[in-house]
Write a structure and sequence with these properties.
The chain has about 350 residues and is an alpha/beta fold. It has a single domain, classed as Aldolase class I (TIM Barrel, Alpha-Beta Barrel). The chain is about 45% helix and about 15% strand. It has an 8-stranded parallel barrel with strand order 1-2-3-6-7-8-9-10, surrounded by 8 helices. A two-stranded antiparallel sheet has the order 4-5. The structure holds 1,3-dihydroxyacetonephosphate. 1,3-dihydroxyacetonephosphate (13P) binds next to helix 12.
Length: about 350
Amino acid sequence: MSERLEDIAVAMVADGKGILAADESSGTIKKRFDAIGVESTADNRRDYREMLFRATDAMQNHISGVILYDETIRQKAADGTPLVELIKATGAIPGIKVDKGAKPLAGFPGDTVTEGLDGLRERLAEYYELGARFAKWRAVIDINVGANVPSATTIAANCHALARYAALCQEAKIVPIVEPEVLMDGAHDIDTCYEVTKATLQKLYSELHAARVVLEGSILKPNMVIAGKKSGKASSPEEVAEKTIRAFRETVPVAVPGIAFLSGGQSDEEATANLNAINAIGPHPWKLTFSYGRALQAAPQKAWSGKAENVAAGQRAFAHRARMNGLAAAGRWQADLEKAA
Ligand code: 13P
């Protein structure tokens, strides 16, 4: 495998493949485990993730890379093999979440800024030694129109931090995934999401340029342009696709090799249908694929439910979602393929 940033970035968005976001922090994975009645111990977290990484068909055919959390990149499988080696054996690239979470932005109620730059150079050097060849940093932009959220200040602060993170990654020979997530939790309509997404991406690429980040060696992980969950309005895949691509065409340079979406709270099938609709209106100047957490893992988590005898069922559920999303990344998914499962 080439160590050039440009080659790694291209491999992360290879045809029919996407990224498994398995980088839930200890707090987030506890929430997921609570929902299936599993205690969140280090061994249970290891067993669960080992199950996914050993789903060989799904990993080899549809997963280009896996985003890990600090605990996981250091963990060994039950038989003593490092989890990183299990991932590499499937041909997928190990990656690492390096941000330290979104914290309230002083002076701007409702806005957050993602922290984690202090000591990042040293942490990246260690993660490289542990096998990481790409990283992720998630900025969180909420929308609450009545409360003037997001402010221009939160967008600027988050995009500046993303650019400093990305430059440090490239210095460490690690491909940065830049993730400015405009949340879909609010009551806003799809056009407000479009405006906020566009303003955020414009600022992001201006900051990345100022920080001398080589775009060819980076990946964008954005939200789709979609109505907020509390708006009570459903967005059709066609409308999501049209408005998402419009926002990108106006802001994302073609030097960026690929765009890998977060699922952000969409249902499994919604995330797949929307990705498919986006690719169906191509060709586009970038690869467009998935970097899903919940939309890849909700089904296997439920099927597994913490029981060793359910590992095969969990792997089947994961393989199915990985295959559906792999097809969507090529614009070749159809709803009746879901029913055949
Ligand atoms: P979701 O797909 O569950 O939004 O998670 C992706 C991710 O990595 C968010 O940072």
